[in-house]
Amino acid sequence: MMAPIILVVLIACNFIMAFVSSLAAKPHNYVIVENTFPADKINDPKVLNFSKSFRTRQFQAALILTLLDFMLLIPMKDSSFMLLFFLLLYLTIGTNYLITLRYIRKGHQLIAENHWQLTAQPIQIDTRLVLEKNRKLVSAWWFLLSLGLILLLCGLLYQQAMPDLALMFLIVNILIWGMMFFTWRVINRLPVRPLTDDQKINQQYNDLTKFYWSSLSVFMSGIISLIVFVPLLTMKMAASFFTILTIFEISLILLFCGVSLWWLIRLRRKQDQLLTSTATFRYFGEDYYWRYGMYYNPDDNRLMIPDRIGMNISINLGKTAGKIFLGLVPIILIAAMAVTFVPLYVLDYHPDPLSYEIKNEAVILDGPFVKERNIPFDQITKVELTKQLPTGVRTNGLATNDYDIGHYRIAGESAILFVDHQSKPILIIHTKDRFYYYTNKKPAETKKLYQMIQHLNH
């Protein structure tokens, strides 16, 4: 079941990235794929063909990558499956960037061949615009609503006798809330540059940007806390509600993505409408600093700047903080792959990944990268063997086609699993507080443990 879901996720990533990247082919501030064209050449057949070719290549790549993604349906070990998933995901990201990089060069070549170079104009200072740059910025007080929602949801978790989860939820969401508030602060501090000689249009353009971006940061600070909260409800609810909660969770994620994208596209359209109403657009020579699809200008004091699509905030890689950020990206990507792949590799290829030990009148269950469980004999009320794992809901841990490891809710009861589905039977250890499900890679070892507990517990 995991393979089709992951396949759908990858296919969605392919076409979402193609769609977002293709937005760069639509003129914004007369910029097409990081190149600024003269206003009277935007509808030139050569420029239109250039834009169309870029969009076509993005979606052609998405289609080819989708065909490659179907390799995930080939039967393979879980570790190989997850490694392939990450390689395909990173291939999508890399392909998307390389196409963009190629077309930045082609756009520059098109401008040079037709002598369409624009003359950089001096940066104009509009004192009134600088003083009133945040007049439409959404007030920071609105963040109190999302903060109140976080505290309310945390209180609900605590009331349901889940203090540890409540604390974890609070820490995670306060960090996310802090990131959204930091984003709001960045938007608040963004400097302004008059894009035209019309002061009224400059003010309206800035007001639109500040309002849309700041309101989106407030919206995200609230809805993300709900997205994190909903899966935690499964820990206390019956398994029959799992499907309903899953549908609700997916709906929240789609709402989050859809509203965010719609809001930013709406902003971009309004910005373009303003700029096309005047012929006095000012070019500052920024194409030189966007040659690699990223902004690199050591002489620019700004760390955070608007991107050229008009939908996001970018980082000036010419600053030390920008270089640190760029260096962290591959580290995070590699770490994400390692954290997922390495435990599965151990489970697949270690001779005894799910081990047990009888020590100090207790059974010790252990697995790769999970906390070992010490079960005293005096707490064991019953042991049994079963060939089928009962239906349950994972609340924390690892779940794949072959393995279930971690905390679960099974038949409404708390359970901890160390289960390899390729090995049968499954040992069930009953205690006063929870159930433990265990399988060794060797079925004979599972049966041996069952007999030892029965003998020692009597």
TrEMBL record:
Q: TM segments?
A: 6-25, 81-99, 138-159, 165-184, 211-233, 239-265, 324-346
InterPro entries recorded: Bacterial_PH-related
The record, for Pfam families, names: bPH_5
Q: Does the keyword Transmembrane helix apply?
A: yes
Domain named Bacterial Pleckstrin homology is located at 355-446
What are the record keywords, sorted?
Membrane, Transmembrane, Transmembrane helix
Name of the protein described by the UniProt record: PH domain-containing protein
